[in-house]
Design goal:
Blueprint: H1 2-13, H2 16-45, H3 48-69, H4 72-79, H5 87-111, H6 113-116, H7 121-125, H8 127-152, H9 158-180, H10 186-190
Helix pairs in contact: 2-9, 3-5, 3-8, 4-8, 5-8
């Protein structure tokens, strides 16, 4: 019976679609679990007001990332495998376009902070927070695009590794920022 299960498992994971989907699922589960731990650590180290405001800032970065992507991360999955010699050009265009769209969207968000979220105005008033917000918005816009390159190339075994590294660094930074900068937006700097 065990031998039959082992044979069935080997046959199942010999298909590249199932193997790649498994890595994506594992990466998503890891990311979700570590983000949950991140919030628990944040709640222990910071005040409820700091966690709430930082959560709003992080959600804003997620919205900026979603808008700036413009569907290019999905287009990479569709068109990169068939692009052949033009794959580098396609990737360069996509990265440049997403970074430009993210910069423009971030600029619009920061200029209009008093319209959509006056509680986040300290981001605009503090140079360190402003730079951190811009950097995190740009990198958050770029990460899904880069992860989808692995999916397009059917080489997803690195996705869980990338998610683990990014997630562990987030937790390390949030703890570090709680000691160095125990302010309302220390969580944002820890992201």
């Amino acid at each position: 019976m065990q031998n039959q299960l082992k044979i069935a498992r080997n046959q199942l994971f010999s298909h590249s679609v199932i193997k790649n989907a498994s890595f994506v699922i594992i990466g998503t589960i890891i990311n979700g679990l570590v983000n949950f731990v991140f919030l628990i650590v944040a709640a222990k180290l910071y005040t409820p007001q700091a966690v709430g405001l930082s959560s709003a800032a992080i959600s804003s970065i997620g919205l900026i990332s979603l808008i700036a992507d413009l569907g290019l991360s999905i287009a990479i999955i569709r068109f990169l495998p068939d692009s052949g010699k033009e794959s580098n050009r396609l990737l360069n265009f996509s990265i440049t376009f997403v970074l430009g769209a993210s910069a423009l969207t971030t600029l619009i968000f920061i200029v209009g902070l008093n319209i959509w979220s006056s509680s986040l105005l300290p981001i605009r008033q503090n140079a360190l927070l402003l730079v951190a917000f811009i950097v995190f918005a740009l990198t958050s816009s770029l990460l899904p695009l880069l992860l989808n390159v692995f999916i397009a190339k059917r080489n997803t075994r690195y996705i869980p590794i990338i998610n683990i590294v990014v997630s562990v660094l987030k937790i390390v930074f949030i703890v570090l920022m709680s000691f160095l900068l125990n302010s309302t937006f220390g969580i944002l700097l820890g992201v």
